[in-house]
Amino acid sequence: IGSGTYSNVYKARDRKTKKIVALKKVRFDTSEPESVKFMAREIMMLRKLDHPNIVKLEGLATSRMQYSLYLVFDYMQTDLARIISRPDERLTEPQVKFYMKQLLSGLQHCHERGILHRDIKGSNLLIDKDGNLKIADFGLANYYNPKKPVPLTNRVVTLWYRSPELLLGTTIYGPGIDLWSAGCLLAEMFAGRPIMPGRTEVEQLHKIFKLCGTPSSDYWKKLKLSTTFRPPHSYKPNLHEAFRDYPRPALGLLMVLLALDPAYRGSASSALQHE
User: Fold this and answer.
1) Which CATH architecture fits 78-272?
2) What is each CA distance from 38 to 71, 79, 236, in whole angstroms?
3) pTM for the full model?
4) Catalytic residue set
5) Measured between alpha carbons, how far is 75 from 139 in angstroms, rounded to an integer?
6) What digits encode the pLDDT tens for the residues 203-219?
7) In what order do the strands lie in the sheet containing 78-79?
């Protein structure tokens, strides 16, 4: 039914309980040592997280025949990317609010436990038949400590949802990267399509600056970023114009989540206080 960062996902039935489950299969004979490390970290994180808006690891199973390990999860019928892309049905404001609240609640739980997801996008937000949303695929997730920041790779997050500081090469970052992705999804739910579908990192940055404006000179100094990708001419912020048809409360939250400076994106808990 899908593929994750380093695995395939299958729909299966538990013979004992007759319950339909999702099995995430990781093969060890072909696995790079790196992917085994990622998988071990994913299992540890999922055991640490316990929240209605985060997928629950129901169990582990092994197959000696195939040198495989299976992670067992609840089966979810669809995901947010599929729901957004339905051509005949645009999401209503109450629906967007319902999904956004669940996404931010799940992120709040992760961030309060020192975990960054690092790949928030529609296909990683699973949704059941009752509209319950669960954050899935922690294959790229990592721990962070705001008091003792350590360098982390910036080669994370699917391009269209990647924050400007990651694109510009920062290795010291925090929850702001997940909040940027959440902001992209908020706009996408109203638009019915991805708002910044760049094909390369340079094009992605260009789209961000066209929408959010060119960063000030302080921005480059503060984040200690390379000015290699500094745009040749400056853009004024265009969020208000681009999203003028969006409901006012949504626009207010978008302005926060899509702030160029991660310090101004607030936190998942402050976003939850928003209208």
Assistant:
1) Orthogonal Bundle (1.10)
2) 13, 23, 40
3) 0.93
4) 119
5) 18
6) 999 999 999 998 887 88
7) 78-79, 125-127, 133-135
